[in-house]
Amino acid sequence: MRLGLVGAGGVALLHAEAAATLPNVEVTAVCDPRLEAAGEMAGRIGALAFSDHTAMFESCELDAVVVTAPHTLHAPITVDAARHGLHVLVEKPMATSVSDCLLMIDACRQYGVRLGVGHVVHFLPGAIQTRRILASGDLGAPLTMTERRTAHYSPGSRPAWFFDRSLAGGGIVMNVGIHSIDKAQWLGAAPATRVLAHVTQKPGMTVETEAVALLQLENGMRVSLSLAGTGLPFHDETEIVCEQGALRLSRRDGLWIYRESEEVPLLPAAESDIDRAFRDQLADFVEACRDGREPAVGGEYGRSVVATAIAIYESSALGDQVAIPHTSELLQR
Ligand SMILES: NC(=O)c1ccc[n+]([C@@H]2O[C@H](COP(=O)([O-])OP(=O)(O)OC[C@H]3O[C@@H](n4cnc5c(N)ncnc54)[C@H](O)[C@@H]3O)[C@@H](O)[C@H]2O)c1
After folding, report:
1. Per-residue pLDDT tens digits for 143-200
2. Ligand 1 pocket, 37 CB below 6 A?
3. CATH classification (class only), 122-268+305-328
4. Signal sequence span per UniProt (predicted)?
5. Where does 133-221 show beta strands of DSSP type E?
6. Which terminus of the chain has a lower count of CB atoms within 10 Å, N or C?
């Protein structure tokens, strides 16, 4: 599998490191309009460097690309890659509008290539075990979920384009909140169908830095979501209350299970979890391309996460709850 990396920033390095651990996978080329960044990454891994993705697609023998460019570029780059017959693993968020997601899905179908979306949470050991326990019914049916995430969201905390709406498509919701929406829908085992939300921002910011939302999943479960971008210490936690107990999944404390007065640690949090998740995510994508099957996280799922993020913005603007169209309704288009 000859991979091209589109974008040579922070997350591209995690994909390049993942590729280096997999047999029969090599990063053949890297492109970035910051040619020096592409050159530096390419030099480290013995790949070719380009400043433009079209030039890379046309002059290199590639099988697939990993798209790690700014959010609003995910759709046009994915469509270009599909037209060149390249499988695509695109970073989260899949795109910044539902219509862009649909264009990507259609292009990949039309040109017969696979489309994977980088919701890496699906490969984190704690999240995998949480989903298994919930699916086993051991704790009874899940009743409610609370998802809370903080991240310092101000200029200097991350590359400048994250604060440019034309490239990022939004702020903390579209970037960090996408992981929270994914967790709500994946662990809750159903897409969100209704949302009531409020997003706001600290003075001087061009994108939202804070958000609260109540999601209703298709199976009736309710999820409360809190994203805070100012002041608070690091927090990344999901609590799921079920009929006979509860689970707490914390990036810092690992996975815990609670029944009556009993509290038991199930899995510690390990620093290596994220590297392992990026490796397993790429391994799944490569295998899906070779075997002609859907990647574990495909375009329709990625679209459902983006649809929920957009609904959060719409609900906030409207000051009321909004309904999110079902995948089945969209498929009838
Ligand atoms: N899965 C995760 O846990 C995770 C973590 C971090 C970032 N991300 C996602 O990865 C993507 C990149 O984030 P990042 O933190 O690496 O940002 P970054 O700014 O470090 O990297 C993005 C790179 O894309 C380049 N770029 C801009 N326009 C381009 C174009 N037309 N073609 C190719 N490259 C272009 C930029 O110059 C930059 O080097 C985003 O979608 C982000 O949300 C995911």
Report:
1. 999 999 999 999 999 999 999 999 999 999 999 999 999 999 999 999 999 999 999 9
2. yes
3. alpha beta
4. none
5. 142-150, 192-200, 210-217
6. C
Domain ranges of the chain: 2-118+276-297, 122-268+305-328
CA of 327 from ligand 1 middle (Å) equals 28
Residue 85 Cα to ligand 1 middle (Å): 22
Nearest to 53, CA basis, from 5, 96, 85 = 5
Within this chain, domains 2-118+276-297 and 122-268+305-328 share the same CATH topology: no
Q: What is the DSSP letter of 244?
A: T
69 CA to middle of ligand 1, Å? 4
Separation of 52 CA from ligand 1 center, angstroms?
A: 14
Query: How do strand 48-50 and strand 142-150 relate by DSSP bridges?
Result: unpaired
Asked whether 5 lines ligand 1 (CB < 6 A), one says: no
C-alpha dist (Å) from residue 223 to 129, 191, 214, 220, 306: 19, 11, 6, 10, 17
pTM score > 0.90 for this model? Answer: yes
Residue nearest to atom 12 of ligand 1 (CA): 68
Contact 153, 232 (CB under 8 A): no
Could you identify the atom of ligand 1 that is nearest to the CA of residue 12? 16
Q: Regarding the domain delimited by 2-118+276-297, which CATH topology (the fold level of the hierarchy) does it fall under?
A: Rossmann fold (3.40.50)
Ligand 1 and 182: CB distance under 6 A: no
Q: Is the CB of 32 under 6 A from ligand 1?
A: yes
Q: Judge if the beta carbon of residue 306 lies within 6 A of ligand 1.
A: no
- pLDDT at residue 271 greater than cutoff 50: yes
Contact 46, 102 (CB under 8 A): no
Pick the closest to residue 234 from 253, 218, 260 (CA basis). 253
Q: Count the neighbouring beta carbons within 10 Å of the beta carbon of residue 171.
A: 24
For the stretch 2-12, pLDDT in tens is 999 999 999 99
Name the residue at shortest CA distance from atom 39 of ligand 1.
Answer: 9
